[in-house]
Amino acid sequence: MQDREDKIKVGISIGDLNGIGGEVILKSFEDTRMLDFCTPVIFASTKTISFQKSHLGMEMNFHGIQDASDAIDGKINVVNVWKDSPDIHFGKATETGGSYAIQSLKAAVKALQEEKVDILVTAPINKKTVQSENFSFPGHTDYLAKELGGKSLMFMVTDTLKIGLLTDHVPVKDAPSLISPELINDKVKAMDDSLKRDFGVRKPRIAVLGINPHSGDDGVIGKEDEEVLKPSLKKLNDSGYLVYGPYAADTFFASDNYLSFDGILACYHDQGLIPFKTLSFGKGVNFTAGLSRIRTSPDHGTAFEIAGQGKADPSSFKEAIFTGIQIYRHRSEFEELHKNPLKKQKLRRSGKGAKES
After folding, report:
1. 3-state secondary structure of 146
2. Partners of 38 in the beta sheet?
3. What is the pLDDT of residue 354?
4. Is the CA virtual torsion 262, 268, 269, 274 positive or negative?
5. Mean of the pLDDT values across residues 56-78?
6. Which helix or strand (DSSP H or E) is residue 29 part of?
């Protein structure tokens, strides 16, 4: 990771052209004070951004470039990934919208791999319209795991709530059969590492939710919790990880007990995302932990029902930008401290070391 003195360069993929991606991106940088925190690099085209800006009646300037390495601090930079003017039909799921979303994503990921941008923030895609011979992934997470290396963890985060998933975009009927000791081991370790490296938590406490109702009621309601989950958590606990559970998912968030943990691992998508979005919608961020590079996104989808109407709230997209910047700084500090043990000791003596939860 580069040691940069200038602003962090935030690579941004535009998402589905017919959704609210362009709107939340432009609204995020309509406030020019955002340029004090980072240098945005949007992967699309100046024609597309001009159309979005004109349609929304926004007044703002941007800087067209051919390569992310040409980005200028203090400006909204737009990389011309394509030269044509794609048809935009707000609110409709079209192959064209999906095709250009993937062109943007691939160009942004390439720039991230080449360290021309420091972090990636992705606007929402439509999982159906992006499918093609060149892209057969269920979403961003699986694609990024392939391109950026590592064992990915879908990690939904706010300042006070962090929920990861054992299984993510899979049919709910398949989730129990996919949960193995190996998967549990990998995801707990990925969460533990991310909490330390990306969020500055020295000794993470991790809660794991049960697979079945009431965590199986000692095998009465399914045997997966007794036979797979509990033995796996015990092994991790015995090896030094502060991992607890399984907890019955229906009551876990009913009190403030969840605030006692630095991270929570849910067994399947809705078990984790329903409480997360209920407690923090509009402020939450989707972070792909466990990869060699940093990627965040807002906690919402394409919102076709309001696309092109000027109604989209950019709050979550802004949070995704700020969270990505914070993670970049935490990770840079973590790597620097572990390269230089003497500096780490000095920081601890001065009280500036990593936060202990």
Report:
1. helix
2. 8
3. 45
4. negative
5. 95
6. helix 21-30
Please report the beta strands in the chain, taking only residues with DSSP state E, as ranges in sequence order: 8-13, 38-44, 63-65, 77-80, 119-122, 150-157, 162-165, 205-209, 242-247, 263-266, 285-291, 294-298
DSSP string, 160-173: S-EEEESS-SS-TT
HSE (side-chain half, CA atoms, 13 Å) at 70? 11
Q: What average pLDDT is seen over the chain?
A: 91
Provide the pairing of β-strand 119-122 with 77-80: unpaired
| SS3 (DSSP) at 132 | strand
| The residue type at 327 | I
pLDDT band at 176 (very low <50, low <70, confident <90, very high): very high
Inter-residue contact 57 to 117 (CB < 8 Å): no
Q: Which two tokens stand for residue 327?
A: 């993670």
Instruction: Give the list of residues 6+ apart from residue 146 with CB closer than 8 angstroms, or none.
Output: 137
What the block records as the tokens of 271 is 């078990």
Asked whether the beta carbons of 77 and 65 are under 8 A apart, the reply is: yes
Residues near 337 by Cβ (< 8 Å), separated by ≥ 6? 343, 344, 347, 353, 354
With cut-offs at 50, 70 and 90, classify the pLDDT of residue 357.
very low
User: How do beta strands 77-80 and 63-65 pair?
Assistant: parallel
pTM: 0.88
DSSP per residue over 318-357, as a string? HHHHHHHHHHHHHHHHHHHHHH-HHHHHHHHHHT-S----
Report the SS3 class of residue 192. helix
Q: Which two tokens stand for residue 127?
A: 């999982």
Instruction: Read off the pLDDT band of 2 (50, 70, 90).
Output: very low
Contact 163, 264 (CB under 8 A): yes
- Which tens digits make up the pLDDT trace of 4-49? 456 899 999 999 999 999 999 999 999 899 999 999 999 999 999 9
By residue count, the chain amounts to: 357
Taking 3-state DSSP, the helix, strand and coil percentages for the chain, each rounded to the nearest 5, stand at 45, 20, 40
How many other CB atoms are found less than 10 A from the CB of residue 110?
15
Q: Give yes or no for residue 287 having a pLDDT over 90.
A: yes
